[in-house]
Amino acid sequence: MVDDSLRKGIGDIKPYIPGKSARDAKLEFNVESVVKLASNENPFGPSPKAVEAMKETLKALAVYPDQTSIELREALSTRLGVDKDCLIVGNGSDEIMQLAAATFLSAGEECLISENTFSVYEFATKLFDGEAVFVPLKDYKYDLEGFARAVTDKTKLVWLCNPNNPTGTAFSQSELDQFLAKLPKKAITIIDEAYMEFAETGGFPESLEYVKKGKNVIVLRTFSKFYGLAGLRVGYGAAKPDIVKYMNLAKLPFNVNRLAVKAGIAALDDKAFAEKTKRTNSEGKKHLYAELKKLGVAFQRTEANFIFIDVKRNCDKVFMEMMRQGVIIRPLASFGFGEAIRVSIGTGEQNMRFIEALKKVLRK
Amino acid sequence: MVDDSLRKGIGDIKPYIPGKSARDAKLEFNVESVVKLASNENPFGPSPKAVEAMKETLKALAVYPDQTSIELREALSTRLGVDKDCLIVGNGSDEIMQLAAATFLSAGEECLISENTFSVYEFATKLFDGEAVFVPLKDYKYDLEGFARAVTDKTKLVWLCNPNNPTGTAFSQSELDQFLAKLPKKAITIIDEAYMEFAETGGFPESLEYVKKGKNVIVLRTFSKFYGLAGLRVGYGAAKPDIVKYMNLAKLPFNVNRLAVKAGIAALDDKAFAEKTKRTNSEGKKHLYAELKKLGVAFQRTEANFIFIDVKRNCDKVFMEMMRQGVIIRPLASFGFGEAIRVSIGTGEQNMRFIEALKKVLRK
Fold first, then answer.
1. ipTM score
2. How many Å lie between the alpha carbon of B133 and the closest alpha carbon of chain A?
3. pTM (whole model) above 0.95
């Protein structure tokens, strides 16, 4: 047996529960025509410019990537107005979450984590022997006043998800300003903005300004959602140079593949794709709001590319019945909501297919 | 400052020193025509079948990868005759090194590491607060008897590189058998076989047999070298199901990109490419041996796709002068050899270019 050999902490880690795939739908449910609205992926696929850039790089793949993804950092630097020494690229932004903990979290230090949020914050905390301190949501929103009250002299990392996955709610610049002012100096705040490109309501934090001012903040962004590159694995962090320098020490040398670097650069440049993605999401959101209201179903208004729906019945049963209709959504029990689901906003057609399926399932 | 905030251990980590790239050669040395023989990459690029498989997957990249790279594990399972529950795929095999430490290494436990070997073993050890215990090479070879003498009741991980990077030497099945028999039960041996496909001398360990017998062994292989996919990031580990199950808990959910899975499957199947790679390496090796003998330069016979050369003068100076000739090799100071270099075996033409440049440099 190897159980006795385990590192302390590993036994406490809960397995990640991913959205089901089309493959799962076919294998487990014998469903052929499937709409996957479970993982907040871009319904248009990757940007055509990114696809072209990758094609041109395929034959160069025998060569190792640059250790710090310099070309993508240069492109991001220009785009964001942040020095390239303030940028670190990861194999998905979740790798940067792990790096933040690896670099800064010592055993027994406390990490503030919201309840009902993305699970990798808790994963990274436990992996490096931190103590997770949970703060409840307030009306489905991050409660930054609650976070402030949970601060102690052991607080080291603060994990914020904005907009929040899975509720779609966002906190504002002023809420964040007030919270950060109350933090002790040694604490580092990680702001995961995986969905920020979809946010529409005013007042969304200009988080890179904290980076430029040298605050202890790590802003995380990804190419997985808005840019349609979830399958390629590429995200990035922005932080002051000292933070980035040390995170690089904790990083494996060749963490980001060469195609990810090229595709990321091209995707940043594809304005037509970005415009279509944003417009479709915005229209889809309004359409879904209207349809959900007709069905009399409670939901949260979203700043992201998914909607949190309060189905008020066992979410795993709803998931199974939706699956039989060929629509894959995410049941939210693993996020701590036993009676809610999350649906990604898709194309107009996908959204209608979801609504039709939901109608049938809720009628039962 | 963030220095006070660092996790214990991070300050001890030495930055990884990669091989220089063609980009570096152009930027730093103003050299246009460059032969890169610094990182043991396949001179033929990736397998054409892998390139085709990737092309077909580009448009599907908006979708997340499978969490356990199931399709590649299935292909590997068939190929290797090892159950798929004994396989774990990584973002390069170096990710599995990190996972092994994350899963099994507790603070203060000892890890046996050879001197003059691949640096990620020490990195992973320090990242998880292990104590590195170094064992010298013996005649440029891993000294497994020396390893056995270094075992204590605190020994947890044993890191073996076979063939060894950068000396190219390999230990045999019987040496390994004798060593493993002396290990305490809770110790886990990681056998990094990144270059095993190039080994030609008889007696190379059938390491997967240990896995099949349920020993505490993790065998690591990669698609970066023989299969020409270093830029894509994909490697794997084989170990008994208990070990794999726990390493999966320490793993980020979507560690391997979708293209890596498809390319890996296709590359395994490309027999013509494998045959060409093996033959070219074997011929190049003999050619280089002969030329190096003519030059009167000491070298080690290799079981890999690189040759260790004892230049008996400052390796960084040799590196710089070779760079000016447009040939990038690896100076081995960071491996603990101040007067040796490592050159990858390339195509016939690349090998000649290396020899011509070396002649000029050594003549000075």
1. 0.97
2. 19
3. yes
